[in-house]
Specification:
Elements: H1 5-14, H2 22-28, E1 32-33, E2 44-45, H3 47-66, E3 70-71, E4 77-79, H4 80-86, H5 88-91, E5 100-102, E6 105-109, H6 114-121, E7 133-142, E8 158-168, H7 170-191, E9 197-202, H8 213-229, E10 235-238, E11 247-253, E12 259-268, H9 270-274, E13 279-280, E14 286-287, E15 290-295, H10 300-311, E16 324-328, H11 334-346, E17 351-353, H12 361-367, E18 373-377, H13 379-384, E19 386-391, E20 396-401, H14 402-415
Parallel strand pairs: 3-7, 9-10, 16-17, 16-18
Antiparallel strand pairs: 1-2, 4-6, 5-6, 7-8, 8-15, 9-11, 11-12, 12-15, 13-14, 18-19, 19-20
Helix pairs in contact: 2-10, 7-8
Length: about 425
């Protein structure tokens, strides 16, 4: 039986109707797993899960490219001094892994990408004509989460974050933050998920936060302006800010009613000052940029967990590990089924043929219920270059030419979104 097919069959039979737990579904769908030898909070991705993850990552990168972002790579390690400058060492040390000594230096697994991107910005002199400069990376970071809070993909120690930092003038900051919220809304539509609410996260009491009241006032005022301009109702939450500035948190709710943050938009005056970032203005003088932090889908781990639960494993067609299953009615049509699979793969589609060794036609159709598209080939279809098309959920489209079906599927995959057929 093709890889992953048994998993999809089991999930379709055993999934709960009231709640979809991504930890159970993720294992049944063979998306991810864990091993004690790797350690708690360090899941690994199985082949079908890697397909979902790769597709999601490419979707985000494409959206960013279209929006004018430039992609970079930066190392997962940094000298302890880097995080002392950024403020992470003073304000975030309890969530960081301890330093590792390399000769005379101490290096740390990074808990965040923003210090690295600040160094990318200051790698050379910048002009106001370059701003806004949008830098994006889908990068790994590491947080020393306590064992008691770890769970599946939603709370892990190795995080792969869809992160970006926009370096801009003060006058550009609100528009850039608003543009980030628009990107988030488009992504949620394509992924078939929704925001439960928007939260403006503000500082609380204690030494967790940078002590600069004017910084907090200015950044908070800008984010309120952004939310109001976007027409988004929001709630304010004291004590939920990042240590360096307030943020807009896009909250989601899972099938069990638990709330979590998926996407964020932040305005930061702190780190540009700490790293002495500047640009040359039209007046020829140095000016301090504003740093807008934003993440469209947050961490890949949490995004996939939510998608699996939201859709009960029946992911949008463009994200599904398998787009099309081809089912021959009799042994005589098996070679034709394999030929259709080859045509589908040549078009960039993910397709599998499932033959009679896996049971009756009815059993194979039931087993493939989570696959978006099913093509049945009987004697009549095989002789005429046709397929009998069914959609996930049981809808029968009818008999189509193979090239017509593959073109329709390729169009829906390219368009992304959640609609299977139009």
């Amino acid at each position: 039986m093709p890889r992953g097919f048994v998993a999809w069959s089991l999930a379709s039979v055993r999934r709960r109707t009231t709640m979809h737990d991504h930890r159970r579904l993720g294992r049944e769908l063979e998306l991810f797993d864990t091993d004690p030898l790797m350690g708690a909070g360090l899941p690994y991705w199985l082949p079908d899960g890697a397909v979902v993850r790769h597709t999601l990552e490419e979707y985000v990168r494409d959206a960013e490219r279209r929006a004018g972002y430039r992609h970079v790579y930066s190392p997962v390690l940094g000298k302890r001094e880097l995080y002392e400058i950024s403020g992470h060492w003073d304000h975030y040390r309890d969530d960081m892994y301890p330093p590792m000594r390399l000769g005379a230096e101490e290096v740390v697994l990074r808990p965040s990408l923003c210090p690295h991107h600040a160094l990318v910005y200051r790698s050379r002199s910048r002009s106001y004509r370059e701003l806004p400069l949008r830098i994006a990376e889908l990068g790994a970071m590491y947080r020393a989460e306590r064992s008691g809070v770890l769970g599946g993909l939603t709370r892990v120690r190795a995080i792969h974050l869809n992160d970006a930092h926009i370096f801009c003038t003060l006058e550009q900051a609100a528009d850039e933050a608003r543009g980030a919220l628009e990107m988030i809304a488009r992504a949620y539509g394509d992924l078939g998920i929704r925001a439960a609410r928007y939260r403006l996260s503000l500082p609380g009491a204690g030494g967790k936060y940078v002590d600069d009241p004017e910084l907090w006032r200015r950044a908070g005022a800008l984010l309120r302006e952004v939310l109001a301009g976007a027409g988004l109702d929001h709630e304010e939450a004291v004590g939920e800010a990042a240590f360096y500035g307030p943020k807009i948190d896009v909250q989601i709710v899972d099938a069990a009613g638990r709330e979590a943050t998926l996407s964020t938009v932040q305005i930061d005056f702190h780190q540009p000052a700490r790293f002495d970032l500047h640009y040359i203005g039209a007046d020829g003088a140095k000016h301090r940029p504003v740093m807008v932090h934003r993440s469209i889908i947050g961490s890949v781990e949490r995004a996939v967990a939510h998608l699996v639960e939201e859709h009960g494993g029946a992911l949008p067609a463009w994200l599904a590990p398998v787009h099309l299953v081809v089912l021959p009615v009799a042994e005589a049509q098996e070679e034709r089924a394999r030929a259709v699979v080859r045509e589908a793969r040549a078009r960039g589609l993910r397709a599998e043929a499932v033959g009679l060794e896996h049971g009756s036609l009815g059993a194979r159709i039931r087993a493939a219920r989570l696959v978006p598209y099913l093509a049945v080939i009987g004697e009549r279809e095989a002789g005429g270059g046709l397929v009998d098309v069914r959609l996930r959920g049981g809808r029968r489209v009818g008999v189509l030419r193979v090239d017509c079906l593959l073109g329709r599927i390729a169009g829906r995959v390219e368009a992304r979104g959640t609609v299977l057929w139009e």
